[in-house]
Amino acid sequence: MHPDLMLEVARQRAAERRERASNAALARAARNAARAQRESAEAPDAVVLPPIPDYVDGTFRGGENQLPAEHAGTGS
């Protein structure tokens, strides 16, 4: 092979290796940034759920229907 061609092929291969290394470093940095973002995201302390209706029509049980503190029949 001609010396100039060998030199040009060697330069091209070196440039391709540098490009692959640069792409790998960029991908690694992106993965690390995504991981850091996931870890820094704070989970909510309490989940706020909507009240669940007591009846099919969507109404809630009133205070007069609550259970007594002590059951009748307990001999205290």
Can you put this structure into words, describing what you see?
By secondary structure, the chain is mostly helical. It has one helix spanning 3-40.
Secondary-structure element string: H
Structural class call reads mainly alpha
| Radius of gyration based on Cα positions | 35 Å
Terminal CA distance: 107 Å
Ranges where pLDDT stays below 50 over 5 or more residues in a row are: none
The biggest beta sheet reads: none
| Helical content class | 40-55%
Number of strands: 0
Overall pLDDT: 81
Fraction in beta strands: under 5%
Q: Figure out the total of helices.
A: 1
**Overall 3D form:** rod-shaped
How are the elements arranged and paired?
Blueprint: H1 3-40
Question: Characteristics of this structure?
Answer:
76 residues; mainly alpha; 0% strand; rod-shaped
In short:
With 76 residues, this protein is an all-alpha fold.
